[in-house]
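User: structure tokens for this one?
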Amino acid sequence: MKYNEAKQYKKEALEKADESVLQNYHIVITPANTDDSTKYIEDFVKKPDSFTDESCKKYTSQDDYEVVSFKKDED
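Assistant:
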């Protein structure tokens, strides 16, 4: 999906998610390309607070994104 569609999809996912999901999972926009997405997520988990939704654009030259969720690391 295009970036703006992914942003809207993420917004709706966050609104529908219950509190335990919000506390235990990251919900992020990533490039749809698997290699680009893997690199983005690897960098994201190192410093999640330094990333915004727009950060994913730096990891791909295509305007094709998806919204994914993955478990937060337990510190």
